[in-house]
């Protein structure tokens, strides 16, 4: 299966702990996007990264949230000192192109974060 | 703010019926994508549209990029039980600069009665 991989699929954290969500894009894709989905809602953009660069982080909360996409390895979305309001499904998507050409985004299965 | 208004919010139809849903906005888009999401899974891309007026089919699914570039619709013909799920429109704003971020609609929940 050469699709977008995300792990873990489910993550439970207590308030104040750290959550690390990982995303491996499709083979050949160098553009990664993170979205958050609350129950009964659509997906909300968080951040767009290309290898080693953050291109757009306009949807990221100012504090506690960070993202990276290193030269080697998966993209990581990191949430420090989690609060109950962080409970949501977090989806990663990847595309082959950024702005040039068609940039269909293909989504992973998501990580469901529950904060106790 | 940047919003996509997707309607209807939910539909309950008989197997074999045709389905139509749409997304509208006051902003101009240069890309429209339609996704289907099953419970506990990520969205799956159904159709991508890149030109105003473009009409594209994928099996029983047909989608169009509105001429004004502010709307798009998705039609499903002869629905079957496995069409059940949540359908999302997503668009990329024409003035979104150097970002590829997508704006998502609120979703249309489709239920099909055998």
Q: Mind explaining what this structure looks like?
A:
The complex is a heterodimer of chains A (116) and B (114). In chain A, strands 2, 4, 5, 6, 9, 10 and 11 form a seven-stranded mixed sheet that branches. A four-stranded antiparallel sheet of chain A has the order 1-3-8-7, with no helix packed on it. Chain A contains no helices and eleven strands. Chain A has 116 residues and is mainly beta. Chain B is built from no helices and eleven strands. The model of chain B has no long low-confidence stretch (mean pLDDT 93). Chain B is mainly β. In chain B, the strands form two sheets. In chain B, strands 2, 4, 5, 9, 10 and 11 form a six-stranded mixed sheet that branches. In chain B, strands 1-3-8-7-6 form a five-stranded antiparallel sheet, with no helix packed on it. Chain B starts with a strand and ends with a strand. In chain B, β7 and β8 form a beta hairpin. The chains are: A mainly beta (116), B mainly beta (114). At the A-B interface, β4, β5 and β10 of A face β4, β5, β9 and β10 of B.
Keywords:
heterodimer; A: 116 residues; mainly beta; seven-stranded mixed β-sheet; 0% helix; 48% strand; globular; B: mainly beta; five-stranded antiparallel β-sheet
């Amino acid at each position: 299966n050469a699709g977008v991989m995300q792990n873990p699929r489910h993550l439970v954290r207590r308030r104040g702990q750290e959550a690390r969500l990982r995303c491996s894009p499709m083979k050949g894709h160098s553009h990664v996007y993170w979205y958050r989905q609350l129950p009964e809602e659509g997906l909300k953009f968080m951040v767009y990264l290309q290898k080693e660069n953050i291109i757009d982080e306009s949807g990221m909360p100012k504090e506690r949230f960070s993202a990276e996409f290193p030269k080697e390895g998966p993209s990581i979305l990191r949430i420090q000192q989690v609060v109950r309001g962080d409970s949501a499904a977090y989806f990663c998507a990847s595309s082959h192109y950024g702005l040039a050409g068609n940039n269909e985004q293909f989504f992973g299965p998501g990580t469901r974060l529950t904060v106790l | 703010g940047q919003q996509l208004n997707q309607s209807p919010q939910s539909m309950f139809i008989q197997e074999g019926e045709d389905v139509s849903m749409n997304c509208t906005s006051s902003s101009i888009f240069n890309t429209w994508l339609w996704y289907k999401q099953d419970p506990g899974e990520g969205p799956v891309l159904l159709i991508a549209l890149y030109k105003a007026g473009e009409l594209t089919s994928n099996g029983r699914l047909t989608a169009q990029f509105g001429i004004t570039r502010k709307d798009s619709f998705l039609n499903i013909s002869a629905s079957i039980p496995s069409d059940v799920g949540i359908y999302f429109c997503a668009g990329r704003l024409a003035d979104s600069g150097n970002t590829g971020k997508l704006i998502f609609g609120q979703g249309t929940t489709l239920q099909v009665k055998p």
